[in-house]
Design a protein that fits this description.
single chain; 77 residues; Ubiquitin-like (UB roll)
Length: 77
């Protein structure tokens, strides 16, 4: 299945890319994808995830055509 992955802020800087389309196997969870794509353990552990513009937990199962966004925790002040 085909999904679009977007990286934001410091995760984009770490990955060196903003957006990419990838082919993945069926029955893939957000956590599986995160572990495949982001090798920096600190970033992978704290990253927030949205699928199709909605926050999801890491057990969320992806579907063909999903847009997955990874971004760091947001702080304000």
């Amino acid at each position: 299945m085909n999904i679009c992955v977007k990286y934001f802020a410091s995760i984009r800087d770490e990955m060196g890319i903003e957006t990419k389309n990838i082919q993945v196997c069926e029955d893939l969870s957000v956590n599986d994808l995160l572990n495949q794509l982001i090798k920096n353990e600190s970033i992978a552990r704290t990253a927030l995830v949205a699928v199709n513009h909605k926050y999801v937990d890491r057990n969320f199962k992806l579907k063909d055509g999903d847009e997955v966004a990874f971004f760091p925790p947001v702080t304000g002040g």
